[in-house]
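RECORD TYPE: protein structure
NAME: Exodeoxyribonuclease III
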Amino acid sequence: MFKLTSLNLNGIRSATSKGLEAWLEQTAPDCICVQEIKAQAPDLADKFEALSGLKGYFHLAEKKGYSGVGVYTRLEPSDVVVGYNSPEFDPEGRYVELRFDTPKRKHSIISAYFPSGSSGEERQQAKFRFLDEMYPYLMALKGQRDFILCGDINIAHQEIDLKNYKGNKKNSGFLPEERAWMTRLLTEGGLVDVYRQLEPTATDACYTWWSNRGQAYAKNVGWRLD
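PREDICTED:
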């Protein structure tokens, strides 16, 4: 059995100071996709190129303390794809793909960090541009190989994917256009939401993000964005 997991770190230095390596030892994944590394190459070279016996492969943002994704794995990939050839978004460190190809099968594990539009209209429009690029890219990839897409998608797809869906219909992350993009990906795009396949009706247990305001975590007022 191959154990794969995904985690938004909100800073790799912060995560390791809060017990990331002990958690990895306990959960023992064969591969973990991480997002929001928020570090540069020299930072990783010092301490974080490998964690708990897993070797890391990264796509880092040019801007310090921003974004960045990675995949840590026990297995040696046959190829590593850093970025998806986007002049606008590759400098933000949002896509890394590890390929594990054999003569009989081509398959990949992807760690991606979709933009958030919550800071304002300018970033929301950037998010829409990212989605417009990512859909055809994934469809072209799907025509070539099997893949698992992990990451912080920054979209709650269904009403059961967030606590207060009625009050968030005009907010980034639950906009009709974003939800329609996810629907398209999972219908005509042919991808499978693995969590919803296993837990089709789960609500409160499914959340992966909570606001820092109003004791959202303590009250479990969350969103499933990952």
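COMMENT: The chain has a mean pLDDT of 96.
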